[in-house]
Every structure is written in C-alpha cells, then in structure tokens.
Specification:
It is found in: Cytoplasm. This is Ribosomal protein L11 methyltransferase. The protein has nine helices and 14 strands. Strand 2 and strand 3 form a beta hairpin. The protein starts with a strand and ends with a strand.
C-alpha cells in the first residue's frame, strides 16, 4: 500500500515562509496550518521520505507515515459542495450524481488528487471571481500553476476558446484531463514544464501560486499576456511588496480583492 510521509513543525508564520522555498518540490504535496497563541503548527505532506532534504528533517518536531487510503478519506470528511463565486459552485466528484446544482450556477466537479487542493481555498475563489470579469467568449487563456485544472475548467465554461494549463508537477498530466472529463469539458491542453519554454501569448493569464514562487514568474507572465493577468496567492501583509513587483514589471493594477488573509490582483499590461 502506498504511503505519504508527514513532518510536523512548530514555528511562526514568518519562519514558515522562509522555510517554504526549501520544502517546495515535486515531492511536496501541501500542508495543513493551525495557529494558536502565536505558534504555528504545520503538517507538511510528502510523497517520499528519501527525497526530503536532511536539514528539513532535522527541523521537524515529529515524523510519521500515513496510508494513502486514509489521506483520501480525510478529503471526503470535509470537502463538501461550496459556492466559490457568483456563477460557480465546486462539487466533490463523488457527489456528481446526487447533488442538485442550484439554479443559475455552473458546477465544477473536482477530485482532490495529488495536486493543489479542492478548489475552495480563498485564493482560488478570488481568482475565479476575476476570471468571471475577464474571460470573454472566444478568448485565449493561460493557467500558470494549474494544479487540479479548476481555473482552466472555469475558463472553458465561461467561453474561452483556447485554454492551456501549465504546471511543473508531472501528476497534472493525468489529473487535469481527468477533472476535465468529469466536467464534460474538452479542449484544455496541458503543458508540463518551465513557463519560459512555453510559446505564444494569451488574452488572459492567471497564476494562483504562493508569493515566493509567483514573484520570479511575474516578468515571464508579462511576456505571455496580450492584455490581462490575474495574480493570487498573496497574503495581505505581502500586498505592498508584491504590488511593487507588479509596477516594476510595468503591470497596471486595475483592481484588488481580498478574502481572509489572502489577496488577488487584476492587472493590465
């Protein structure tokens, strides 16, 4: 039976942000964070113990392995249908036949595999709300850091003609088409690799990625968009720093939005 490896850290938000660049890799699956009395407890999930840097292992408070079947059951305990914007509601794939879609909503069916999330995180909601304002029938769309493909699926349902989902995680090659099939959506191309190696430009580009990973991509995203870009995954306390990066890259901020601790930007080239 396949197992996942879990490291537990007791830290602060600031120290966790510094640690993340050392942790994030194709071996890293994500993390659960809880904060109490100024102390941040983080459970970081990995595919393989042997690929975790030794210095990360040494910094962890505890280590354990968990069976794959337990991981999937955990998703099902708390992943329920949730409206994420005016037009869209995210529904777990296993509820597709039994859950009645509210009138006026587009469903996005997602199976939470090895890539990022269920599609109900604040950063995803903020991005989808901006896509509703920017995706026009017939336009082209690039999804940077596509993960499960939820933004690409939303773009298709909003009428985008050309949709390209880009990610460095090899698992996306299977998970994005799987989620597209669940949603009866066709025409989403998948590109696995470095954004710099991707040719062409798109009417709208969206990137929902944590700031330390997103910031180095901003100049390349500027080249890849013909007109508009949506950036999400920015903590509110990082707002000024990221806005400075956007302006230095010649992006004009058209609109900002926030939910919880997170922010998103709609920009024009």
């Amino acid at each position: 039976m396949k197992e996942y490896f879990v490291l537990k850290f007791k830290t602060t938000k600031e120290e966790w942000e510094k640690l993340q660049p050392l942790i994030v890799s194709d071996n890293y699956l994500g993390a659960e964070e809880t904060e109490e009395n100024g102390t941040l407890t983080v459970k970081a999930y990995f595919k393989n113990r042997e690929k975790i840097p030794p210095e990360i292992l040494q910094l962890s408070e505890s280590q354990e392995s968990i069976p794959e079947k337990n991981w999937n059951e955990e998703w099902k305990k708390y992943f329920k249908p949730e409206p994420v914007s005016e037009k869209f509601i995210v529904v777990p794939s296993w509820m597709k036949e039994e859950y009645p879609i509210p009138k006026g909503k587009f469903p996005i069916y997602i199976y939470p595999g090895q890539t990022f999330g269920t599609g109900t995180h604040e950063t995803t909601k903020l991005t989808i709300r901006f896509l509703e304002k920017t995706i026009k029938p017939g336009c082209s769309f690039l999804d940077v850091g596509a993960g499960s493909g939820i933004l690409s699926i939303a773009a298709k349902k909003l009428g985008a003609r050309e949709v390209l989902a880009c990610d460095i995680q090899k698992e996306c090659r299977e998970e994005i088409p799987f989620n597209c099939k669940l949603n009866e959506v066709s025409g989403v191309e998948v590109f696995i690799g470095d954004l710099k190696k991707l040719n062409g430009a798109f009417d709208v580009v969206a990137a929902n990625i944590e700031k330390h990973l997103l910031e180095p991509l901003v100049p390349e995203i500027y080249k890849k968009t013909k007109k508009l870009a949506v950036f999400s995954g920015i903590l509110k306390k990082q707002r000024d720093d990221f806005a400075k990066t956007l302006k230095e890259t010649d992006f004009t901020i058209l609109e900002e939005a926030g939910e919880g601790e997170w922010m998103a930007f709609l920009c024009r080239k």
